[in-house]
């Protein structure tokens, strides 16, 4: 095959295909070398399933990975090992290695996806044909082409989605495409050109097989064909990732033609041609094209480059002598940010409510879109044209209402910094309770390894050694949702805090000896423990009539019951959410008088909820610390008020929970592993009109309680309240996967540890966490007993009023305090150093004096 330079290049002598020279660009090199090695390594896991007829597929894939690793190590020592050094040449090196062992490593995957895409082809072209507006039709074709380009197994962000989802289709992909205008958006210019000009010949360099080619490229090609344009489709000469090859190109075109006469006739009369592009990898070197392709391109007046490899990694800045389009989705966040763009779309989870306002009788004009966000911001977008106004509104509305967690941003996010630790595995029960497990009283149980005993609990339980697994399984049927009494915390004096859900006593007075055995195991002789019920006696009695209730005294003789009225939190009936909405509404109303403000603050009952939780937690803490009694806490389901009380209790008693790592461990243990349904509770915020009974800001209430403790004991916390705000934000919308899902089982099924980055991995980076360290922190090993009097509780101004009151003065004061404290530390350090120097000089003087005295004696 004789190769030549593309005849459509404007400056062929100056042409360089690669966007980045990795030999010269150290920053890009440090990113791409490990990133590409991980991408190559990911194939090892898939090799056997993709190549079922090759019994040594995994072994061969590992050999290829080793060769790639060896090259990377050499490049780290000498970047000129591979010349030129670029993403293109590195990918070509890997593909050539793969072809030694695999005829086409991704053939099975490509055929499967192409069959699925072909089954949807008729429907897709019917959708296009139903659009009568010329401009709208071509925008839809462009969006479809971009959405199809999302299906790229070479992108780690996309591969994670496709791996975890068997139903991710073109419609889902179109939801990931951000609203226009795009980073480079010449679609309107292209469409305007179509109004007045029919292209004679178009050459399209295609990318991926499956959805991309069949549902993205072919409908676009079909529309060009109807305008009389000759279309030349050019694909790779050799297999590369899931890119379509020249041989497959012919096959897929003929299969699609069976469903479309336009394609069939174009193939038969030579209006639609297919040619190979001579490339051995997923990128495109326009100085190395087959002669036959160059001859046909010479007559073309439109060139289209599709995919990251052909239009971004290579040829992004290439100039042509004819009209050109680059069609690609940025599927790598580092590259996107380095170009000043975004990966896929906005972090749309932050939006709680979207409102559109359009002046009456001005349908041709634009309007205003108001976005109310979950961090209390309210953004106003003024959009001048009706077309853009409706497009932006529709896109945001669709993206903010995705029905599957796997389509949310954390599954696409890839950090541009090295991960120093894996936050997903940082707080395992085995390590968190290591000291306790070293005793002869407690053990680990894996009875719930498959979540068959309790779906909302974690797979690892810490239980008393005297209780066997059969007892645990039997007791689970007596507790709502299987949430048996489990260890939450062991105090320094040996008392223990347990949590569970309500017993299923019912009006029949049902009992469970296995459940009684669990509590008897921790009971102390001649010392009653406390069963702390977060419900009033009235609500507990009501629950008993529905099959629940509380522990019968006659069967739990060593336990004494305490009822605390946290009914609204227990019931999760939407009332707490309403109270919170009223609080934020009052905070944002800057026009009301002081009297009305105080009245509205009282009527929203938010501080009343905080007072009730703090009161309950302090009572439990007193039982553990002062009375030296064991405590079991439960309400009904054990998912809200119970976790609030047990976690705040530990902050009061345990100084470790007042440190950065300790608070993270507490959230993991008492909220994430304990099964608080974050996905359900935090689905909507205070602005949304679509409120449901199972939504309420329970976790935010917990953070506010810590804020109250921090306010009263500012020196006892290692972190600032700004870290609490960051945790709050990430519990509602995040780049990270930590708070996705309702329990550990759901997180396991979504493979969060493999497909997302942990929030803790980000927060614990030295350059991040130093911004949230409390300069006034002095470790305090004692319990902190807060005042719960109404006058002692304060509104969390830094959070709820963050966009209402300018925090500049507070920040300035905090910075000055920080500077004074740092200056004091520096002076203390300097004083210690000077004391040491003084002591050294005194010792030296004593030595010299003694030596002098010895010399005098010797002379005498």
TrEMBL record:
Keywords: Coiled coil, Nickel. It holds the Pfam family PH-GRAM_MTMR6-like. InterPro entries: ARMT-1-like_metal-bd_sf (IPR036075), ARMT1-like_metal-bd (IPR002791), Myotubularin (IPR030564), Myotubularin-like_Pase_dom (IPR010569), PH-GRAM_MTMR6-9 (IPR048994), Prot-tyrosine_phosphatase-like (IPR029021). GO terms for biological process: negative regulation of autophagy; phosphatidylinositol dephosphorylation. Its cofactor is Ni(2+). Residues 423-800 form the Myotubularin phosphatase domain. GO terms for cellular component: cytoplasm. Gene3D superfamilies: Uncharacterised protein PF01937, DUF89, domain 3 (3.40.50.10880). Belongs to the protein-tyrosine phosphatase family. Non-receptor class myotubularin subfamily. PANTHER family: LD06050P, MYOTUBULARIN-RELATED. This is Myotubularin phosphatase domain-containing protein. It comes from Dendroctonus ponderosae. The lineage of its organism: Eukaryota, Metazoa, Ecdysozoa, Arthropoda, Hexapoda.
